[in-house]
Amino acid sequence: MPKQANFAAVDGLHTFPRLLFHHAQVRPSEPAMREKHLGIWQTWSWLDVAERVRALACGLASLGFKRGDNLAIIGDNRPHLYMMMSAAQCLGGVPVPLYQDAVANEMLFVLQDAGIRFALVEDQEQVDKLLEIKDQLPSLEHIAYDDSRGMRHYTQPFLHDVHELMEMGRIHDRNHSDFLNEEVEKGHFDDVSVMLYTSGTTGKPKGVCQTHAAFIAAAQGGAQVDNLGADGDILSYLPMAWVGDHLFSFAQSLVCGFTINCPESGETVMTDLREIGPTNYFAPPRVFESLLTSVQIRMEDAGQFKQKMFHHFMAVAKRCGGSILDGKTVSTADRFQYWLGNLLIYGPLRNVLGMSRIKVAYTAGAAIGPELFSFYRSIGINLKQLYGQTETCAYVCLQPDGQVKADTVGAPAPGVEIKIADNGEVLVKGAMLLKEYYKRPDATAESINAEGYFMTGDAGFLDEDGHLKIIDRAKDVGKLSNGAMFAPNYIENKLKFFPFVKEAVCFGHDRDMVCAFINIDVGAAGNWAERRNIAYSGYTDLAGKAQVIEMIKTCIEEVNASLAHDSMVADSQIHRFLVLHKELDPDDDELTRTRKVRRNFIAEKYKVLIDALYEGKGNQYIETEVKFEDGRRGKVSADLKIVDVKTFPIAKKAA
Questions:
Q1: pLDDT of res. 630
Q2: Is residue 303 domain-resident?
C-alpha cells in the first residue's frame, strides 16, 4: 500500500529517532520517563534517554544488528524496553513487541514469522520462555535482559545484561563517533517503524507494518484535537504489544514531549496512578468497568449516611454533570448542588481513582456501555471514546470537546476519510494506514479496496452529525431465523455494564431466539454473596449458587427491557442463559490476549451447552480441561442450571 506522498513533519522531524534527539537538544533536563522501583520513582531526562538510546543502538550494532532486522521486545512497560524500540529504529530496524503474559508456545509463531535474530526481554521469566523454545528458533542469535535478578548462573554466551550492552555501545560510539548520526540520517518517514501483530481472533496473527509517517500523523492528529502538550504525564501500564499503548505512550510522548510513567508492577497500578495523577489516560472499557465495580463494592460496605449522600449527589451528577463538563447552560440551583457534590463526593472519588489531574481520558478496543461512559463524565472526568485498529494506528475517529456522545465513537479524526460500504462495513483512508502485512501481500491486497480504502471489518453508520456509530464486527452481525438483525457484541456490552458480569457470550445467528453464557465477576459477586451470608469455596461454587443465578437473571431482564425500546435490536432479547462453571481465559484459548472473545472456538468447545440451551433442557453436566499458570493441566466440572428469562413487548415508536 503506497503512502501518501505529501506527508510532512515540522522541521524535518519525520522519524522517531529524530524527534527523540530533537527533544534532548531543546529541552534536555525535562523528564522524559519515570519508573517506580522498590517504591521510589526514578526519573530520566530527555538527555538521559537520548544517551541511553545511543548506547543501546551502538551496542546492538556491535552485535551485528543491521537495517531491516526485527527486534522482539517482551515484558511489562519498562523505560529500557521503550528505549530499545528507539534504538532499533535508529539503526533502521523494526521493534516487534509481544504480549508479555503469553506462554512460550504462543510466542513461537510470531518469533518464527518475524524471523527474530535479536530479543530484549524484561527478566528471568521471559528469558526462560525463550530458552524453552530456542531450539525451534534457529535464527535467534542474541537475547538481552533488563532485570538481572536470578540471572547469575545463566552462562549462555548469547545472553546479555542490558547494562553490559550499553557499555559495549559506548565503546563502539567512541570508536565510531559518526556511525549512529549517519544511521539516523538514513531513516525515512516511509520506513517501517514498528510491527504489531493482530490478536488472531479468527486465525494466525498477522504482522502489521506501520511507518514512522503513519504513527507520527496519528499522534499529531490526536494532539491537535485534544491540545496535548509537553507538560503532560501518562501512566504506561497496558501491554506494549497493543496498538493503543504504542500510540498514546510511545508515539505521542515523542511527538508532544510529555512524560511516560511506568508502574512498579501490575499489582501497584492503582497506587501508582494516584501518585502520578496523569493528565492523559487510556484504558479499554474493562478497566473502567473494573474501577467502577471497586467503587460500587466500597459503597456497599459504607455506612448508611455515606450511602445516602453518595446516591443523592450521584443523582445530581447524572442530571447535570455531563452538561457542566461540556460547557452547556445549567440552572443556578443545579450548579450549586454540583459544586457541593464536587466538594464532598466527586473530587474525593476522582482522587481515589487517580484522576484528579486528568485533562482527557480515552477508551477504545470495545464498545463501552452508555451508563458507564456517562458515570465518568458526570463526575468531571473528560472521558472520550475513540475508534481505530492496529492497521490504522488506533486512529480513525475522535470525539472533540463539546461534541461527545455516549453512543458514537466520534467524528473522523484530522486527515481521515470514512465511507460506509453498501453492506454497512466501515471503510477508512488516510496517512495512518498500514504499509503492509508482513510477508502477506495476499492479505494486504484483500484489506484495501480499489479506491485505497482499508476495509475495517466493522459494521456501522454515520449519524446526522457525521459521527460514527459502530454496531458490531461485520462478520459477527447475523440474523435471527425471523430475519431480524443479531449483533452479539452490542448485547454483551450492555450485560457487562453490571458489576457482577465480567464476560458474556451471546448466540442467536440463524436461530429463533438469543441465548447467553455469563461469566460472573468473582470480586463483585463474591462481595454481594458475603453481605448476604452466602458461603462459597471458589468461582465454580459461587457461579452455581441459586441466589447468584437469580441475581444475574435480574440483570439480564433489565437488559431485555432496554433492548425492547431499541427497534434495531429489539428481537435480540435474551430468552435463556447459564452461568459458566469457569472463567473464560486466554490461557485456555477462549479469549485473545486483549480479552476479545474467540466466538468460533467457544461455540465448538461448549457445543454441548449451546445445544442444551436451545433444546429446552433445565440443566447440563460438563467437564472442561483447564490450563494453569505453571503449565499443568486439570479438569473442572459442574452440573449447570439453565434459566428462562422474561422478555418484553417491543416498544412502538411514536408517530
A1: 64
A2: no
Domain that residue 134 falls in: 10-212+241-250
Place of cell 456497599: 300
Q: Domain total for the chain?
A: 2
The stretches in the chain having pLDDT less than 50 are: 1-10, 654-655
The dihedral built from the CA positions of residue 24, 28, 30 and 31, taken in this order, carries a sign that is positive
pLDDT at position 3 is 39
Q: In the prediction, which pLDDT does 583 show?
A: 93
> Is residue 506 one of the residues assigned to a domain?
yes
Kindly give the residue spans of alpha helices, DSSP state H, lying in 246-301: 252-256, 269-276, 285-300
Q: Rounded to 5 degrees, what angle do the CA atoms 320, 322, 325 make?
A: 110
Residue 605 pLDDT: 94
| Helical axes 179-186 vs 79-90, angle rounded to 10° | 80
pLDDT tens digits, 228-264:
999 999 999 999 999 999 999 999 999 999 999 999 9
What lies within 8 Å, CB to CB, of 308 at 6+ separation is none
Terminal CA-CA length for the chain: 49
Mind giving me the DSSP string for 468-481?
EEEEEETTT-EE-T
Q: Amino acid identity of 363?
A: T
In terms of DSSP bridges, do strands 619-627 and 118-121 run parallel, antiparallel, or are they unpaired? unpaired
H helix runs in 326-411, sequence order:
332-341, 347-352, 370-378
| Residue type, position 289, single letter | E
- Coil, strand, or helix at residue 138? coil
Q: What is the CATH number of the domain that holds 26?
A: 3.40.50.12780
Residue 351 lies in a domain: no
Q: What is the 3-state secondary structure (H, E, C) of 212-228?
A: HHHHHHHHHHHHHHHCC
**Residue 90 placed within a domain:** yes
Q: b or e along 146-177 (b: 16 or more beta carbons within 10 Å of the residue's beta carbon)?
A: bbeeeeeeeeeeebbebeebbebbeebbeeee
Question: Residue 9: its pLDDT value, please?
Answer: 47
Return d(Cα 84, Cα 107) in angstroms, integer: 19
Q: How many helices (H) and strands (E) does the chain have?
A: 23, 28
Decide if 54 contacts 24 (C-beta within 8 A): no
Q: State the pLDDT at residue 202.
A: 60
